[in-house]
Write a structure and sequence with these properties.
The protein has 681 residues and is α/β, with parallel strands linked by helices. It is 31% helix and 21% strand. It is built from 18 helices and 25 strands. The strands form three sheets. Strands 10, 11, 12, 13, 14, 15, 16, 17, 18, 19 and 20 form an eleven-stranded mixed β-sheet that branches. Strand 7 (274-277), helix 11 (288-305) and strand 8 form a beta-alpha-beta unit. Helix 12 packs parallel to helix 13 and helix 15 packs across helix 18. The radius of gyration is 26 Å and the shape is globular. It starts with 13 loop residues before the first strand and ends with a strand. The structure holds alpha-D-galactopyranose and zinc ion. Alpha-D-galactopyranose binds next to loops.
């Protein structure tokens, strides 16, 4: 496995951020300072043009690029490369005034007024046309600039539009999908219910009023359509760039498990995955280490979409953000810790929003490398500058990847369908949280864990956790069976395999589509517990685990081993956790929402069966590993303020230059990167 550098021109890890010089064109003194200070901070890249449309084209057809030429030239002359954004994240006033159909219509049928951002009708042909004009002009001007590294299309895609044009496209999309046969759709959506049958695709309306609608298939298909339409829009930009600058990679910046778009589907159209990381550090609801773990999960989600290469942390906040409910300052040391976490999990970049705080408007109080104070001796600037130095010490990590043997399955479709189903308890379904918990529990063994779609390959994994895999896509159950047959360890839970890809329930027992044979169980009932209700599971080894929220009542087939039974209620004594061998592997079914300790125990057993060595980490310490050829880099991160001692690790600490043989001490928020190569790995 060779290193795959995202940007051969960058020497090591990219260090950069959003830079908005168009806000300062009347202050050449400041623009000059920017270059000096970027160099001081060890920045080698800047993201330009994200919201520059009105500066590029202040009136329709009148273009100004001179300013950006000067900036890009100057940056390049100083060793700072450019990621150039297409400016479609926000529209200039002249465009909305003349072409109001570019403005989005909400779920109540009301068209937006001019303003804000990220609120276009993605179907509007005139919008696509105006974007294509400015894109072509950008390529004319900058497509062969030696400083241009990458295209960043638009910004944080999101949202949906209910305008008549989008509705028509939705109907056409459905007609295509259901082979122009309305009866197929009626079947798939079970529309005899409440007399919802359609005679024709033209009768289908989107789920207006925010999905307070009665057809689950329709709600789901609307979300899929929104992803499809957004991807179609995205392609209208990428097609121009791919044709005209085939050597320049393309990305767009994602946001965690954004509920509005299936990123996994969109990722297929991108060359590189990038995302914007804004954890709510130091909040008063959870330990800091938990916030870090959630952020690690989000990194793993992004990495796993294109795991054969590094991803990018396109944005993160130096100091603080301005849009959380409480915008607390990051404590000293956290900047380095969070930046190293991104790299440890496979990012080849540490980038910020933003380089310099603007003087006015919505984000004037958002953190930046350079504050309104304007100097290079603020705490935040110094932390960024120090990080710039540290990143140089680990530059050889660039181009290496994380090779996880363990994965958690997370599907956008299951997230949408579970959220939308009327059943269980609306407040405690928590599907994404349960996937995150599986990630947390598995990674607590010092392992890297991918977060994949059920439609991805299972080839590289020895252990797969599939919490609440409610919806089964075609072939998933066969592929899971094959995975176990070949020796895979599968751990599934309550709410597995209830519906097909149209949200129709399987008949003959859940988990459906043949999975009941793999697990050797049928879930006959699912009990929803009130928030204060508890049950308990007693395991055959004598240990106990608490149950909350959900508990299924199982029928167990011959040959299935019961390893835990319920302690209370009318299902007392009945199976709660089972395992069944199939070929060389085992399929474990966890019928209830079990306490973390018990889940960890079940995962530990699966890892043992898979012969995956684990590391015993102190609480609050993360371990991630990147590798290439004959070398590997193990990152250890202390997500607490206390000193921690980690045993069982070795290698050359690239940050201190000291060898470590067995035991490593980390100060609060401390990080280490241990290199091992050859037969020492
Ligand atoms: C997002 C956007 C940026 C900026 C930051 C603020 O990630 O992409 O333009 O608004 O949030 O945190
Ligand atoms: Zn529209």
């Amino acid at each position: 496995m060779e290193r795959k550098l995202l940007f051969p021109k960058i020497d090591g890890i990219m260090h950069g951020g959003d830079y908005n010089p168009e806000q300062w064109l009347d202050r050449p003194d400041i623009l000059k300072e920017d270059i000096r200070m970027m160099k001081k901070a060890g920045m080698n890249c800047a993201t330009l043009g994200v919201f520059s449309w009105s500066t590029f084209e202040p009136r329709e057809g009148e273009f100004h690029f001179e300013w950006l030429h000067q900036i890009m030239d100057e940056l390049y002359a100083n060793g700072i490369y450019t990621i150039l954004a297409t400016p479609s994240g926000a529209r200039p006033a002249w465009l909305d005034e003349k072409y109001p159909e570019a403005m989005r219509v909400d779920a109540y049928g009301v068209r937006a007024h001019h303003g804000v951002r990220h609120n276009h009708c993605m179907s509007a042909l005139v919008y696509r046309e105006k974007v294509s004009i400015i894109l072509n002009r950008l390529v004319d001007e900058f497509g062969s600039h030696p400083g241009l590294l990458m295209w960043h299309i638009s910004n944080e895609f999101g949202g949906e539009c209910y305008c008549p044009h989008c509705v028509k496209r939705f109907q056409n999309y459905l007609a295509e999908k259901f082979d122009h046969d309305i009866e197929k759709l009626n079947q798939a959506w079970w529309t005899k219910f409440w007399s919802h049958e359609y005679n024709d695709f033209s009768q289908i309306e989107p789920p207006y009023q925010n999905g307070e609608y009665s057809i689950m298939g329709l709600n789901l298909e609307w979300k899929r359509f929104t992803t499809w339409n957004m991807t179609d829009y995205m392609k209208s930009e990428t097609a121009i760039l791919r044709e005209r600058t085939p050597d320049i990679p393309i990305t767009t910046n994602f946001m965690k498990l954004f509920p509005g778009l299936d990123y996994r589907k969109m990722s297929e159209e991108l060359d590189v995955i990038s995302w914007d990381s804004y954890p709510r550090f130091h909040n008063d609801e959870e330990p800091f280490a938990d916030t870090m773990t959630e952020n690690a999960f989000d990194h793993a989600v992004m990495r796993s979409m294109k795991k054969e290469q590094p991803f990018m942390m396109m944005e993160s906040a130096p100091g603080l953000v301005n849009w959380h409910p409480y915008n607390k300052m990051q404590r000293p040391g956290v900047h380095k810790l969070a930046s190293f976490q991104a790299v440890a999990l496979g990012s080849d970049t540490v980038q910020y929003f933003q380089w310099r705080k603007g003087r006015g408007s919505f984000e004037q109080y958002h953190g930046a490398v350079v504050d309104h104070l304007g100097t290079d001796d603020t705490r935040v600037f110094r932390e960024v500058e120090e990080l710039g130095q540290e990143l140089k010490k680990i530059k050889e990590v660039a181009g290496t990847v994380v090779k996880a043997k363990v994965a958690v399955i997370f599907d956008w479709d299951s997230m949408w369908a579970i959220e939308d189903m009327r059943g269980l308890a609306q407040d405690t379904k928590n599907y994404p949280e349960e996937c995150m918990n599986a990630y947390r529990d598995l990674s607590s063994f010092g392992l890297d864990v991918d977060v994949i779609s059920s439609e991805d390959s299972y080839e590289d994994y020895a252990v797969i956790a599939a919490p609440m895999l409610y919806m089964l896509h075609p072939n998933v159950s066969e592929r899971l069976k094959a995975f176990v047959e070949k020796g895979g360890q599968l751990i599934a839970t309550y709410l597995t395999g209830y519906v097909d890809e149209n949200t129709l329930n399987y008949l003959g027992g859940f988990p459906g589509d043949g999975l009941r044979d793999l697990f050797g169980v049928i879930s006959e009932e699912i009990d929803t517990l009130y928030p204060k209700d508890r049950n308990k599971v007693r395991f055959t080894d004598g240990s106990e685990g608490e149950v909350r929220d959900y508990a299924e009542v199982l029928r167990v087939a011959d040959g299935t081993e019961i390893s835990g039974t319920y302690e209370n209620d009318y299902y007392k004594g009945m199976a709660a956790v089972t395992g069944r061998k199939s070929g060389k592997g085992t399929a474990v079914y966890v019928a209830a929402r079990l306490a973390q300790e018990s889940m960890r125990h079940l995962y530990a057993q699966a890892l043992k069966r898979a012969e995956i060595p684990v590391l015993c980490l102190p609480d609050g310490v993360e371990c991630h590993t990147r590798e290439a050829d004959d070398v590997c880099y193990r990152f250890l991160l202390n997500d607490t303020t206390e000193k921690k001692t980690i045993s069982g690790v070795k290698g050359l600490n690239l940050l201190t230059g000291e060898p470590v043989d067995g035991t490593l001490q980390l100060e609060g928020y401390g990080v280490a990167c241990l290199k091992t190569s050859g037969k020492n790995r």
